[in-house]
Amino acid sequence: MKNVTLTALLLAIAGAALYSGAYAADTATEVQRDTHQQARIEQGLQSGSLTTQEAGRLEQDEARIDRNQANAERNGNLSAAEKARIQREQNQVSQAITRDKSNGAVGNPNSESSQRLQADVQRNINQDQRIENGVKNDTLTHREAGALERGQAKVDQREARAARNGHVGANEQRHIQNAENRQSNHIYNKKHNDVIR
């Protein structure tokens, strides 16, 4: 009887470890896709194939995806349906990036406004990579990654609001940078709080 109980316990532990590893891969994959899409937005700004206003609309879409990821990860479990919904949304944003980059509208990558937004989007890329790395190396739990995605959504939302009129002013960038600094501190604190899966 003890052998059966011990075997069942070991199988349950092994199953939980496999499930946790698969979930971590799913979470890291979704964050990696965020990073890739942010990089495409930044590249579009740098080349002039995206205007500041177009990039702002794309950041609005990115904010929605980040909020949905945060909600899906809130309970520490990313279901197949949630993953499929997030992937559909990411596919739609990917198509929007491609469409906006090839629609003939030309941005000025050397304008102060574009330079400000480029810097902010680059910071998004860095923050997303830090979250992705934290999930991969187990310094972030799934719930922590979800909370950090909610913070990323807030930053994306600020960028979207600032770029809505096609111009990001110095004062608007200062507010974005303050939000980015808070998010950076949240990432650091969550990665170093000794909470493990």
From TrEMBL:
The signal peptide, as residue positions, is 1-24
Stretch list, region Disordered? 87-117, 163-197
Task: Indicate, by first and last residue, each region the UniProt record lists as having compositional bias (Polar residues).
Answer: 108-117, 178-187
Which of UniProt's keywords are assigned here?
Signal
Keyword Chloroplast appears in the UniProt entry: no
Q: What is this protein called?
A: Phage infection protein
